[in-house]
């Protein structure tokens, strides 16, 4: 969910939400208040007491109070991705209020523990703190939590990579189930808080995210995308989903049918929501419906229960739904069904119980408790991944003097979906507590900018507008420069230690503690010119918007005041280096026994919601810093603090040890020191493949991981670090792998022994690979994992249950899962590329029959394609395939019998085109050409036929487009 700007007027709040008076005391005799009654009876009673207007008003995110029944306001959506983050204060203008509580490691860090039991404990803390905040102010802190994010990390450039768990659906499902269970609590009838999975579905790009189409062929949909969501919902570890912004197979996710998907995965009632602004996109950027009543009706019929739109103002939603009712697009039964879904969760939250239910007594005192701090420290340590450790570089010796260097050494960063840190233990803090002595520097250049004999100066104290006025480069005229990559830097004023930001849409001011906000106005570029001068360019995110215009360069007026203008108007500065960051870092490294260089990302700058990364490189300035320190001191350890794969091939070759961590919350420094000094043994594992520098990634909008050979599942490239990679300070041996038939599957067991000198955890990973299949199979696929703790010399037998059904593929010829008869490799190891034991099993199944194209076959059920895009057959349901000239579909192993004599295609097109029917390949023997006349539009379907000749037996049939058209189905006559 993005930033939501404040609603327009308090009068609207009062009208829509009933803010003028507190709810009256309810009659305790109302049956819906009686916890002893069955839930359905309580819901029926309350539903029957609501007026039609009250029911409709509850379809908006801010469900107004019903004073006559003693029911207070209910708001959906408190952000809680890795701790309670933020919510909207409806009583104070609709502004965002950020929680100050336990901030756990970023979501990808939680998954990097490969420890569902631990993640469930984290989720429980988040649920407790949500209750604590709710107890303090229930109007601000709602108990429906918009977390976790379970979108698969298919492409590492995704701006929201930090929010997801893994590129693998099984691991993602296990971690999201654990987090959701923790949030919900263990009461069978009540919820501590209500987790909602984001973002359904196939949302793994930010570029044009409200208009791009995630084209999912059936195998990718059913084998990859759906399991990530289905696992938690079918385990009753989530209470709903948030629909994503993007289109899925041509249809906006906001109106993609939820009733035929997620609601069939559980017997529990689900309460679903749209993403912020999603309802308005349907008639806005997506132009999918002509009117808002049509859009509202489609959403409700698709199964969306709550409209997150128009900030706190529910009036437009109410008007749209009422108009849809008046126009016959909706019925009262549709509204009742939706309100039942809402009530199903509100009742389970204890809202209508006289005592608030079993979790109603949790108070604000639970927030940031000592126990929560201890769990945070443990989690941060368990999440860290040791990428490299040669020559015994780690763990460190406490007797050694340490140089702590780098732009992230003295600070901790939070992200868009973080709460505020109640305290900070930085990497420097943590190391200082352990080391015999330390010396530190951020390794940042300190500069001054001069033009026309005057220096650019800043204010002291709280800061002030920058001005070209100083005659000397004193502290007010000096700035520390931090490089975040792709030329983007931040400037920290030496005058007051605050960052330079753009203010009033024009001038610059040094008043920000850290880069933050939706547009991140603390971003700049220092652009060197051929004449030796430097231009100062404003690079905040809104400069990418078409409305911003070319005025992005800093210019100074004659009196020294600043504004923004074009490049031609920009002031040409002379950049003076007051102090070299690298020189200072080298001196520190030379004075110490060992150097620890902490580099990485700034989460508000290096990719984030609405902004994908364009590359995976470490910032050039940071890379140069590490290389200089390594040259000065061979005993250099790199701590890489970010939330996505990074191409650090050169550093991997040069430095002896690399430790990766996400931005891990207030206890980062303690956890880091625990790992660096061996108090904790690293056992985090990567949940995502780290590609090598120069590796070609597919288009970020291409979701067909099978065709593109993406993720560890289908890629045959040698990565920098493989999925599941992570090292330890001890060693582990694997012996005696066995795979024994056990009911409808196999029991796989292996003995794991700690063969080293230290206690440690090993993450035992089970993979399989299918030898033969009618389709392309994964190179290997994760089937199970377990994190085990072993003392030196201790052994444990780890056992997995491998069900035969787990090995099924989606059979496009019959539209269902099927297990093929085949031999499977059973592979156990410590990473996807570190297999320690292997065996094979024979799985009996059903041979996928030859395709019968004499029956109507959906075009979307192709076996292979070139350039095909799945689109919507109608706005309500069905998939079709859009093809441009030269693009093709393949249907493999079709039984043409004694001969195919004709073909009929279901087609839609705005202009005349044709389709060639060929054998064997897109250039194979031509059987016939289907002439396709214009049908009058992409939703106006017709049929087109042609005679075929010369084809019989079992063949691969290709449909090759000549011109632009859509195909929904085909059938051959024979």
UniProtKB/TrEMBL annotation:
InterPro entries: Actin-crosslinking, BXL, CBM6, Cellulose-bd_IV, Fn3-like, Galactose-bd-like_sf, GH, Glyco_hydro_3_C. Residues 1-26 form the signal peptide. PROSITE patterns: CBM6. GO terms for biological process: arabinan catabolic process; xylan catabolic process. Gene3D superfamilies: 2.60.120.380, Galactose-binding domain-like (2.60.120.260), Glycoside hydrolase family 3 C-terminal domain (3.40.50.1700), Glycoside hydrolase, family 3, N-terminal domain (3.20.20.300), Immunoglobulins (2.60.40.10). It comes from the Bacteria. One of its GO terms (molecular function) is carbohydrate binding. Transmembrane segments: none annotated. Residues 854-973 form the CBM6 domain. Keywords: Hydrolase, Signal. Catalyzes the hydrolysis of a non-reducing terminal alpha-L-arabinopyranosidic linkage in ginsenoside Rb2 (alpha-L-arabinopyranosyl-(1->6)-alpha-D-glucopyranosyl) to release alpha-D-glucopyranosyl (Rd). It is not able to hydrolyze alpha-L-arabinofuranosyl-(1->6)-alpha-D-glucopyranosyl (Rc). Belongs to the glycosyl hydrolase 3 family. This is Exo-alpha-(1->6)-L-arabinopyranosidase.
